[in-house]
Amino acid sequence: MLAVGSLWLSWLACDQTEIEPLPTPEPAPEQPPAPPPAPAGYAWQLPKGLAEPPVVPDDNPMTDDKVALGHQLFMDPRLSVDGSRSCYSCHVNERGNADGRATALGAGNKVLNRNTPTIWNVGYLTALYWDGRADSLEKVAIGAWKGGNMGVGDGLDAKAAEIGALPEYGPRIRAAFGLADSDPITPDHIAKALSAYERTLLCGDTPADRFELSDSARVGKTLFENEARCIACHVPPHFTDNKFHDIGLGYDKKGYPHKESDPGRGKHTQVSEDNGKFRTPTLRNVSKTGPYFHNGSVATLEEAVRYMAKGGNLKAPNKDPLLVPAELTDAQIRDIVAYLEALACPAELMVLGDPLPVPEK
Ligand code: HEC
Ligand code: HEC
User: Fold this and answer.
1) Which range, of 29-43, 99-113, 145-159, 219-233, averages the lowest pLDDT?
2) Most CB atoms within 10 A, among 12, 51, 54, 117?
3) Which of 114, 116, 334, 120 shows the shortest CA–CA distance to 214?
């Protein structure tokens, strides 16, 4: 025992005394000049109530210049096929960053089949559009631009080249994406800039985020989270679960299907159980974005809350079991409305250039 112990000690002693000095390093060979520093991370300014910035895709990092470029593009009617509307035309401050219509009015004054959602906090959504058919803002930007909203269709590449040829855009787009003069400007660049801007549209610091609620709104919050179980799907801080539910709007009061009901999620997945399901919308700014629901079928917030609180359309065969009827008085309905009013976003989009007149509802 003793022998082992002293061996150990002497090994330790050796270890301490016989350390070779480190060789003096050779002078470093001539280095090539250091590459320019990687662009610093974007300086997010998170309002109260939002703990994390949105997730940014690796292939579209945020930079101040790209955001400013996207902002300008968002406001520019030259993106649409006929110069008649910009993204902002349908996502306008005066209408809660939606358009105030039951369903949108696209290029060529074509009436589209869905209600325009607000775009506050869209950067946090993992399933975009009412039916979740897009999984990134970049795809939505292409969709909105090519499809009925802006009507550009097959002319998308030509339109991107046209925008890129404008002196106020070409150099900025090339700089934002590190393009050489000979590189083409594609729809992808425009969609990325628009999306970078949209990720900055943060809605927090509402009276609800500041815990500054009236007595009625306070009662409404308790009802929302408890008796009425709204929180089962409208999960704070974004008031959505990013999932799809059928609340029964496709059926009449007797349980007969409406003639032209929108299959919603089912149209995208081609799974019949998904018919009638729509993504839970945010409730931020909801007091300003009527009419309500995917088809704009309900005019006022009070009516929408009443519909949800009674458990949706109880006669609809596939209504989501998470939506349960709650026995609420008229005063309690108004309390929930007061709470939802306290989710109104204090910020506004900064309008650039000469905005088109705010569209008629
Ligand atoms: C004609 C009106 C109109 C215009 C113009 C328009 N939008 Fe929209 N926007 C809508 C409608 C309607 C929807 C919902 C469509 C659906 O769910 O099928 C929508 C949905 C969105 C969404 C998804 C929101 C969510 O909750 O999932 C984003 C993001 C968006 N638009 C951004 C844009 C951008 C960027 C542009 C310009 C390239 C644009 N919009 C132009 C009407 C419009
Ligand atoms: C089962 C999940 C679920 C529950 C529970 C739920 N909602 Fe919803 N809510 C949705 C979905 C999904 C929609 C969109 C449905 C559509 O348009 O077809 C929606 C839409 C709304 C809208 C319209 C928003 C807009 O922008 O058009 C309001 C307001 C609303 N809900 C409030 C409530 C309230 C208040 C409660 C509790 C009484 C509640 N919801 C409970 C899933 C739910």
Assistant:
1) 29-43
2) 117
3) 334
CA atoms of 356 and 72, how far apart (whole Å):
14
Question: What is the Å distance from ligand 1's center to 154 Cα?
Answer: 19
Q: Report how far ligand 1's centroid is from the alpha carbon of 10 (Å).
A: 77
**Tokens 């609800």 label which residue?**
208
Closest to 200 (Cα-Cα) out of 347, 98, 87: 347
Dist. CA 295–CA 69, nearest whole Å: 32
**Which residues contact ligand 1 via a Cβ below 6 A?**
85, 87, 89-91, 104-106, 112, 114, 116-117, 119, 122, 125, 128-130, 137, 140-141, 144-145, 149-150, 194, 198
pLDDT tens figures, 296-346 = 999 999 999 999 999 999 999 999 999 999 999 999 999 999 999 999 999
Query: CA separation (Å) from 205 to 109, 209, 236, 237, 287?
Result: 36, 5, 13, 11, 16
Pocket test for ligand 1, best of 126, 129, 136, 277 (most atoms within 8 A of CB): 129
Taking the CA atoms of residue 186, residue 190, residue 196 and residue 202 in that order, the dihedral angle to the nearest 10 degrees is -150
Instruction: Kindly report, residue by residue over 37-62, the tens digit of the pLDDT.
Output: 445 579 999 999 999 999 999 999 99
Residue 213 contacts residue 342 (beta carbons within 8 Å): yes
Ligand 1 atom at shortest distance from the alpha carbon of 107: 1
Amino acid at 67: V
